Amino acid sequence: MLAMNRKLLRDVWHVRAQVLALGLVIASGVAVLVMSLSTIEALDETARAYYDRYRFAHVFVRLRRAPERLRDQVRLLPGVQSVSTRVIETASLEIEDFDEPVIGQLVSLPEQYLSELNRVALRAGRLPAPRAVDEIVLSEPFADAHEMKLGNQLRAILNGRWRELTVVGIALSPEYVYTIGPGALIPDNQRFGIVWMGEEALQAAFDLEGAFNDLSVGLMPGTDPEPVITALDDLLESYGGHGAYARADQQSNWFLMNEIKQLRTMSLILPVTFLAVAAFLTNVLLGRMITVERGEIGLLKAFGYQNAAIGWHYVKFALVIAAAGISLGWLAGYVFGQTSTEVYAAFFRFPFLLYQPGARVFLVAALASVAAALCGALGAVRNAVRLPPAEAMRPPAPPLFRRSRLGRLPITRWLDQPTRILLRQLARWPGRSLITSFGIGMAVAVLVSSIHWLDALDQLADVYFEQAQRQDLTVGFGQAEDAAIERSLATLPGVITTEPMRSVATRMRFRAREERQTLMGVPARQELFRVHDAETGALQLPPDGMVLSTQLAGMLQAAIGDVITVEVLEGRRPTLELPVVGLFETYIGAPAYMEIDALNRALGDGGALNSVHLRVDPLLERDLYAALRETPRISSVMLKAAALRGYHETLADTIQIFISFFAVFACALAIGVTYNAARIALAERGWELATMEVLGYSHAEISYLLLGEIAALTLAAFPLGCAVGYLLALVWHSAFVTELFRVPFAILPATYGVSILITVAATVLAALLVRRRLDHLDLIAVLKTRE
Fold first, then answer.
1. 3-state class of 538 per DSSP?
2. Which residue among 125, 305, 328, 443 has the highest number of C-beta atoms inside a 10 angstrom radius?
3. Using CA atoms, how far apart are residues 460 and 464, in angstroms rounded to an integer?
């Protein structure tokens, strides 16, 4: 076995460049797997530690007003471990040198003790002093967006009165890892932020002395939140409770967990692509080696080496290739994983980051790579051990060549001799040619399936922000208001037209299915905020019944004609029986719509609304913003242009980072496949090429024979790669369907072009490396022996 090990080392050194090229392909799959799994693990561990360290609650509920003594009753509920009561209100903020409307969510902090739940992580400064009425703590993303420091001041309208507030601290909170304002899609840290104040100061500002309007509950380990939620709803119904919900449905946590879920999907799909190509290439390389070493295999068997020893020798060769790929992949995966985790940490604003990938991550990646290498080696090793000694020591029978159909085509008469040789070589080894084209095509496919996300996100933005939304801004209110407020807004400077909307928190039930969703009331024919079907366009609502998104209908397993039980979670909390009268396709959320007058009649509220969409004159925007800051009871102002800009900036930055990763992996795949195929061709045809050069063919013609074959296979790979990329993108599209996003399936022609150009650049680099070896070909040494 020592002799076999020495032979293994010589073999590996002899084809070291091919081993490295194949290792790059395996390394790409390992790196993607390590990057995905380590990022998932880091985000999961960081979030868990963050939640535990700062006591993130398990159940939440908003209500109108409840006395502090109610806290003791909640604490007695089965399974409840801790209770925290707060005051949460919204206020218009005025920040120096920023003209657009800014909304702050004011959250109270206990003044004499640390909060039992949802504690803040101070990043700078301190908490408000006891009984201080003008001290605040700002959320770090909001402070950074406005470059606010300790000691800076801002103005806020608290319950209709302007107050001057001083920043004494900057903090983060597990409750606001992903901070978005009402009705927003992504965070807008310039126009919406969290502001913490002392409890007594906030209670006094909003006439809530000795009372609260928000309650959080921490549960004992292993407690099911549903019975607690039911008990809370019964207890708080008379206090205007809006329906309790579990941590899983809390907005910030839901976004974070959804992102981790999508990463898990990515970790299952993409590595398979690279490892499958690696298995093919391992089979080709070992098959070539066994063909060359037939005589040596026969001698080994003649000297008494058993089939198992010979088979194990070639298996070890495959394991060496896998080991090279695993080593490179581990290193690249760790670096890329740390980079992607830092991107997510910055996006979700964790106060700390736990990136310490466990052994399981690397072990899973290694086992997957070894399995791929062994699968590729299996067929070649089986051929090696089956060779009888006498047959193995004879040279293989030369292949039987005959004039092919290609040679009979009239067009071949117009081709020069080197081109006809090149085409015959491809036609004589169709299997090998197909594998090479498939490998290069997979590089194109990876790029197409990655870059297509930019096309899809652009289309999503066009449908959601341009076709469905025609308003310039949306003004929201904390509770239902009389329709007269719409007429008041219409008189403000620059307002061209208005449109009302009523949003109601509900719990929808159909048979055994239940979903907590918002039911939105809009005019039957909308002009500004349209009920938009992604396939057919704007919809006109019928006078009765609900129109559901296909996503919500699927979640409830309901169809047109079914009657949904809708439990309203606010006001008098009626229970409605509403038929489904239509379905529509949307890419964002799982909305349900109803004609606003019909909704108000069902709720018995008359002409109520809680948001108004506005179209405004851009020349009078600053006057309008100033007027909105003075308007009482406003809880949110969403500017469509700012939301669209934030959408592109936030998602584009994140997506482009990951596309860059995949571009590197795809280039490694293309280089590995091209270099490996060219080196095998050079080894097999070295004697032939040297003979042709001696006979008078120029060096350029010799290079054309070898590299032209690679060029032809690359050209053949482009349509194959584009087709596989289309299918792979379709798989990604189906796998990434969530309650929040259904990214449209869109691939622009430019995406195929960019993917092909990147692959061409990678294959040209590999071809130049092989050309360099061809330039240094020793004709005498090659002609002295065949193989």
1. strand
2. 443
3. 6
624, 495 contact by CB (below 8 A):
yes
Q: Measured between alpha carbons, how far is residue 638 from residues 142, 165, 469, 631 in Å?
A: 16, 24, 12, 15
CA-based Rg of the chain, rounded to a whole angstrom? 34
How far, CA to CA in Å, does 371 sit from each of 5, 702, 710, 770? Answer: 22, 39, 29, 29
- Provide φ and ψ at 772, rounded to 5°: -60, -40
Full-prediction pTM beyond 0.85? Answer: no
- What does DSSP assign to residue 570? S
d(CA 757, CA 753): 6
List the CATH code of the domain at 495-616. Answer: 2.40.70
Tell me the residue type at 746.
A
| Mean of the per-residue pLDDT values of the chain | 83
Q: Are 589 and 534 within 8 A, CB to CB?
A: no
Question: pLDDT tens across 658-705, in order?
Answer: 777 777 777 777 777 777 777 777 766 666 666 776 667 676 777 777
Rounded-to-integer distance, Cα 621 and Cα 615, Å: 10
Cα dist from 696 to 276, 691, 701, whole Å: 42, 9, 10
* Torsion 267-268-269-275 (CA) sign: positive
pLDDT of 478 over the 70 cut: yes
Residue in the block written with tokens 């050309």: 771
Q: What are the pLDDT digits (tens) for 289-321?
A: 776 676 777 777 777 777 788 788 778 888 888
Q: 383: closest CA among 372, 370, 371, 396?
A: 396
User: What residue type is assigned to position 129 of the chain?
Assistant: A
In the chain, domain spans: 56-250, 409-468+642-787, 495-616
Report the candidate in 675, 693, 764 with the shortest Cα–Cα distance to residue 418.
693
SS3 of 249-282: the string is: HCHHHHHHHHHHHHHHHHHHHHHHHHHHHHHHHH
DSSP states along 646-710:
HHHHHHHHHHHHHHHHHHHHHHHHHHHHHHHHHHHHHHHHHHHHHHHHHTT--HHHHHHHHHHHH
- Kindly indicate the confidence band of residue 53, based on its pLDDT and cuts at 50, 70 and 90: very high
770, 771, 777, 782 alpha-carbon torsion, rounded to 10°: 60
pLDDT at 458 over 80: yes
Do 412 and 420 contact (CB within 8 A), yes or no?
Answer: yes
The b/e string for 40-68 (b: 16+ C-beta within 10 A; e otherwise) is bbbbbbbbeebbeebbbbbbbbbbeebee
C-alpha distance from residue 549 to each of 249, 587, 609, 639 (Å): 19, 9, 22, 24
What is the C-alpha separation between 332 and 350, in angstroms, rounded?
24
* Sole residue written with tokens 């020893």: 309
Can you point out the beta strands (E) in 140-208? 153-158, 161-172, 192-198
């597990």: which residue's tokens? Answer: 174
β-strands 161-172, 135-139 pairing: parallel
